[in-house]
Amino acid sequence: MVMARAFAPGKCILFGEHAVVYGHPAVAVAIDSGVEVSIEESDRWTLEGLPFDSARHPHISHILDEVFRYDGPSLRMEVNSGLFSAAGLGSSAALSNAIGAALHSHTKPSEPIDPVGLARMSHLAEARAQQGRASPTDTATSALGGCVVVSGEHIEGTRHVFDATLTTPEGEREWSVNIVDLPSDMEEAWLVIGFTGEASPTGKMVAGVAQRLKDEPQLEKEMDAIARITRAGLTALSAGNLEAVGMAMDACHQKLRLLGVSSPSLEALVEAVGPHALGAKLTGAGGGGCMVALAREPQRVAEAIEIAGGRPLISRFGASGVHLL
Ligand code: MEV
To answer: Residue 87's closest CA among 251, 266, 222, 208?
Structure first.
C-alpha cells in the first residue's frame, strides 16, 4: 500500500509576537525540528496506533472533513513530532501543514504540493483554535521555510509571497507575508531555544493581551515600541550584524515583559543565558513555553539553559519549509 509522508518545520519568532496580531511586523524563522506525518489506507481509522477520535483532534478532523472533504477509505495516521508541544514553536501549525501535505500527496499524487495553499489552510485552522485571533506567522513560516516577515503592510527589502486576511473579534485584519534572504554572516549564528517545561496557551495569552489593551490603552505604546524594534532587528538581520540582532532581541523581551506575557520560568532562562549569548527573549505567545537565544557558541548556551532547569534545542537559521518525504 502506498504511504504518503510529509515534514513541516516548527518556527521561532525573533521579533514581533503579539504585536503582529494587530498588524505590526513580525520576523520568524523556520527551525530544524518539526512534525512528520505519514498516512496510508487501512481497514480502520487510527492515529498513532489508537482508534482515531475526531473530537479529541479537532485540527486533524477539520482538515480531513472541511478542507479536503475526505470520504475515501479509512486511514492509518502516524505523527512524529520533534517539537516541544504547546511551547510556542508552532507545533500545531507544523502539524496542520504536514497533515495537509500528506493528504494532498495521498489524494492527488501527481500534483505538487502548494506551500501557499497549505499556509492559508493552516492559518484558518489556527484561527479556529485561537478564538479568531491568529496571525499567519506560524503557519506561513512552517509552510515557506527560511526567514519570513509578516506585517500589515509591505516592508521594504523583503520579497512579497502572498496576502492573508481574517475576521477577528477586533475587526478585519490583513497581512502581507514576505520572505527575506539572509546573508551568509548568519551562518555563524545559532538559535538556542530553551523550553521552560510549562505550556504556553496561545489562545489565552492572545486574549489576555487584547483585554489588557482595552483596560490600559497606554500599552499601545509598548506595541509601537515592539514594531520599531522589529524593524531595527530586521535591518540588522539583513545586514548580518549579529550583535545588533542580539540587542534588538533583548529590547523586544523587555517590551513583551511590559505586555505581561513573560513568566518567572522564562525570566530565569533569559537571565541564565545572558553572559553567554548575543541576545535572548521569550518566543511565541509566552506565559511559559520557550525562550530563544542567539549564539555563536550554542553548546555553552544550551548548558546554561540546562543548568537553569530548561530543556535546550539548538537550530540553524531558516530551515526549509513543508515538503514531502
Ligand atoms: C504565536 O506563536 C504568536 C502570536 O503572535 C500569536 C499569533 O501571531 O497568532 C502570540
So the answer is: 266
Ordered by start, the domain boundaries in the chain are 4-182, 184-316
Task: State whether the beta carbon of 285 lies less than 6 angstroms from ligand 1.
Answer: yes
pLDDT digits (tens, 9 = 90+) for 228-270: 999 999 999 999 999 999 999 999 999 999 999 999 999 999 9
- Report the C-alpha gap between 94 and 186 in whole angstroms: 24
Which residue's alpha carbon is at the smallest distance from atom 2 of ligand 1? 284
CA distances from 18 to 138, 165, 202, 259, 282 (A): 12, 17, 10, 9, 12
Say what the pLDDT of residue 1 is.
Answer: 64
Dump pLDDT digits (tens) for 3-19: 999 999 999 999 999 99
Judge whether 224 counts as a catalytic residue: no
**CA 182 to ligand 1 centroid distance, Å:** 22
Length of the chain: 325
Q: What is 184-316's CATH superfamily?
A: GHMP kinase, C-terminal domain (3.30.70.890)
What does pLDDT average to over the chain? Answer: 95
CATH 3.40.50.300 is the classification of domain 4-182: no
Ligand 1 pocket: which of 202, 223, 226 to mutate (most atoms <8 Å of CB)?
202
Task: Choose the catalytic residue: 43, 138, 163, 250.
Answer: 138
Asked if residue 148 has its Cβ within 6 Å of ligand 1, the reply is no
Return the H-helix or E-strand segment holding 305.
helix 298-307
Task: Give tens-digit pLDDT for 31-75.
Answer: 999 999 999 999 999 999 999 999 998 889 989 999 999 999 999
Is 206's C-beta closer than 6 angstroms to any atom of ligand 1? yes
